[in-house]
Amino acid sequence: NEGGQSAAGAAIDHLVRMHPAAGEATAKAQAEGLSLSAWLSLQAQSRNGAAATPALVGGIHVVPEFLGNRAPFADPDARALIAGLDLDTSLDSLVGLYVAGVCGLGYGARQIVRAEHDKGIPVDTIVVSGGAGQSPLVRQLLADTTGMVVVASTSPEPVLLGSAMLGAVAAGAYKDVAAAMAGMSELGEVYHPDATLAGWHAKRFAAFELLQQAGKAIRG
Questions:
Q1: Which of 43, 108, 199, 214 could form a disulfide with 4, with the two C-beta atoms 3.0–4.6 Å apart?
Q2: What is the dihedral of CA 10, 177, 182, 152, to 10 degrees?
Q3: Residue 109: exposure state from Cβ atoms within 10 A (0-12, 13-18, ≥19)
Q4: d(CA 60, CA 216)
Q5: How does 8-43 read in b/e, with b if 16+ C-beta sit within 10 Å?
Q6: What is the pLDDT of residues 168-178, one digit of tens each?
Q7: The predicted structure's pLDDT at residue 156
């Protein structure tokens, strides 16, 4: 569900490219054959990864709704908000902004899970896919921000695999989608939320929702 966004990856890319150090970081990323977001993810991982999230993000809060909120509010007029910026233009500051943005996506996913629970739809595991989902850091951040177990697929292209499953069902190779899933896919690494960060993320989630509400109030 892309954390409630229409294009989660594009949102993070846009966010980090606004930072003054984006040009320097992009050059370093290209020299290593990486995208900017992938390079920033590795930089954050080298700084003790998700366990160092509080130190990395500092007081930065990001609601990455550049294209509105797709779920759970279906609000096309919602827009991104960033709070807690200072005059730091360093690469470390850019890494922190990246991590704060990914956390914002996680809090959006947390809202979706809560809405599903409120409607009697139990959710106990998140299966991650997509480009950003290839990053162990992003997977752990998603687990920490939602408070849920996150599981990665063994397939490098799980979205394409899902299309192949539908084709297999249509061709009669499997009786239904559930059977195709069991026969054609396999779960990989499992990421558990860090209990020591639960309270910190709860406060950040509350701030995330306050920013959303402020944005809506400002729009009138």
A1: 108
A2: 10
A3: buried
A4: 20
A5: bbebbbebbeebebbeebbebbeeeeeebbbbbbbb
A6: 999 999 999 99
A7: 84
Q: How many residues does the chain have?
A: 220
Lookup: tokens for 87: 């005059």
With residue 62 as reference, give the H or E element that holds it.
strand 61-63
Tokens representing 65? 């709704």
The pLDDT score that the predictor gives to residue 2 is: 52
Split at pLDDT 50, 70, 90, the class of 63 is very high
Other residues' Cβ atoms within 10 Å of the Cβ of residue 178? 11
- Domain residue limits, the chain: 2-121+197-219
Task: Specify the fold of 2-121+197-219.
Answer: Methane Monooxygenase Hydroxylase; Chain G, domain 1 (1.20.58)
Question: Beta-carbon neighbour count of residue 48 at 10 Å?
Answer: 11
Q: Hey, what are 137's tokens?
A: 């850091």
Residue 200 has pLDDT above 60, yes or no: yes
Strand partners, 81: 63
CA distance 170 to 15: 41
How many C-beta atoms surround the C-beta of residue 136 within 10 A? 16
Contact 25, 94 (CB under 8 A): yes
